[in-house]
Protein: Copper resistance protein NlpE N-terminal domain-containing protein
Organism: Paenimyroides ceti
Amino acid sequence: MKLKYSVLAITGGIILTSCSLKSKDKTPVFIQPALLDTIFNNAYEGTIPCPDCPGIETIVHIYRDSTISRTAYYQGREQLPETKIGTWKLKDSIFETTFDREKIIL
């Protein structure tokens, strides 16, 4: 049950961070060291709000080899899901990711 809540908290942080990409303010998500081992090689899914569609289905995979993938599907649009592959670094329990030269702090 703890893992379920941990996954929800991490997914929520990722989603909130991805929503704020256009703004200058980026809120880091602090992850407890005990949770770090449970987040690798898992899929984190959620639907984030979208101003001009019903929602953005988002899936994030974080891998131990310092890679990360993010897939986004805009509901109600006739387009394929878009997947971006990037890398991550961990600094003081903060994930700093880069997707195709787009820097995001998780």
